[in-house]
Amino acid sequence: MRTTLRGAISGIVAAGTGIAAAELLAAAVRPGSSPLVAVGGAVIDATPTPIKEFAVREWGTHDKPVLLSVIVVVLILFATAIGITATKWRSATPVGTAVLGVAGAVAALSRPAGTVLDAVPAVFGAALAGLALWWLLHDRPSAASDVQEGGVDRRLVLRLSMLAAGAGVAEVAGLAVSGRRENAAGASRQAIRLPAAADPARPLPNGIAAGFTTPNAGFYRVDTALTVPRIDPSAWRLKIHGMVDREIELSLADLLRRPLIERDITLNCVSNEVGGPYIGTARWLGVPLAALLKEAGVRSGADQIVARSVEGMTIGTPVATALDGRDTMLAVGMNGEPLPLEHGFPVRMLTPGLYGYAGACKWVTELELTTFGRFDAYWVERGWGAEGTVKTASRIDKPKPFARIPAGTVTVAGVAWAQRRGIRAVEISVDGGPWKPAELLPTASIDTWTQWRFSWPATSGPHSLAVRATDRSGAVQPETRATPFPDGATGWHTISVTVS
User: Fold this and answer.
1) Predicted local distance difference test score (pLDDT) of residue 175
2) Which of 19, 95, 231, 365 is surrounded by the most beta carbons within 10 Å?
3) pTM of the predicted model over 0.70
């Protein structure tokens, strides 16, 4: 039992030392090469779509901390097993080290933007963990003076303490480096002064209710980046290439010198369930993409824009959606300030009428003109629809599901959306009864959601409320329930309430 405990503790401390050192090296040299982040990214890539949907649905923006926590637990269990095995079989130490190093290196190299140098922190950390475990378990003089009465190995305790302290120092140093990098990115963002729009958004019409515009702090975030990229705006560049007559490379200063447009646009995630929260409306400031593409000269046959982000994510967008008159843009501002770091600073792509996975690449650094036949973007490669057109949908926001409300006239309210088509009507059904029209509030444009409200004479007892929308093309929101995969959820949002 004593030998098993010694091996388990030694394995955990040795692994912790190696991981802390690897994370410090990555933080100091290239944050994207963090072994934990690389392994997490590889796990995300390999996770089946139903599990990804479950994670987004159940944990939302907390899915990334949950994943990292699971990875840490698995590493602890692995280190424990290697440490115990190494007390009986010395070869377990180099074998375990090799497995740890290879797994981290392969994960780093598997990332879309991965380079050979990205594997260095994982290999270094694994080698250090192996040396530490050997030092703890196999380089141990057997002198009796090293063992206290009761069987406590003083030399082992001293070495464990030294390694644990070293790991703690490395971890603190890594966090300090990351913190300085984050502060520098935040300061660079704050230093940017966005120019006024050459084509400003129209004032919101009278009659719009509170909550029409989603504040930046409350705007949903769904992406695969385990850590938010910290990009130096002075070093950022955008390359437009592929099936074009002229390649273009632009700095952020180049973009900001161009005429900017300002628009109210609703953005929603394809992972949004019926009635879900992954949708928001903001006032965006950016450079029209159509002008840049015309300047580059799109060649005949090009039907897809592949946007690549700094961490390697690829988003495929139909060329037609950038040239058909909608306000597709390279956004630099959100609700009157530079893009927040987590929403794509310094530049993101935004395409009205498409789900985010098909038209809203964050941290964009590259636009390649190609065809859908030649290349499948990240999500399309995993079975999602290629074009990502937003479906007509609606949601009840008030009252909340399972609310207990007093009898009398109750205001039922919510939003409906059908970007690029607009909303013609919203209807409410109580307890499966006839559909009754709701009042539509004024809205900014066909690219934003529409607020609605309905006066309901509520009577005592349990009730169900359902909502459906009709867009301006005449299409009625379908009743049939479908999951978000592969091209967006469908169904009527229905809630239950109790009237007392």
Assistant:
1) 72
2) 19
3) yes
Beta strands in 431-488 (DSSP E): 436-437, 439-440, 450-458, 461-471
> Which residue segments constitute the domains of the chain, with CATH numbers given?
2-188 (no CATH), 216-381 (3.90.420.10), 393-499 (2.60.40.650)
pLDDT-flagged residues of the chain (< 70): 1, 32, 52-53, 56-58, 60-62, 140-152, 181-182, 184-185
Pairing status of strand 337-338 against strand 348-350: unpaired
For residue 180, report the phi and psi dihedrals to the nearest 5 degrees: -65, -40
Q: How many angstroms separate the CA atoms of 369 and 387, rounded?
A: 15
Torsion of CA 208, 211, 213, 217, to 10 degrees: 170
pLDDT for res 151: 55
| Chain mean position to CA 70 | 18
> pLDDT at position 366, please?
97
80/186 Cα distance (integer angstroms): 39
- What pLDDT is stored for residue 145 in this prediction? 47
- 393's enclosing H/E stretch is strand 393-398
Q: Which two tokens stand for residue 362?
A: 């964050």
Give me the torsion for CA of 333, 339, 344, 348, rounded to 10°.
10
Backbone angles phi, psi at 62, to 5 degrees: -90, 0
DSSP class per residue in 207-228: TPPTTSSPPGGGS----S-SS-
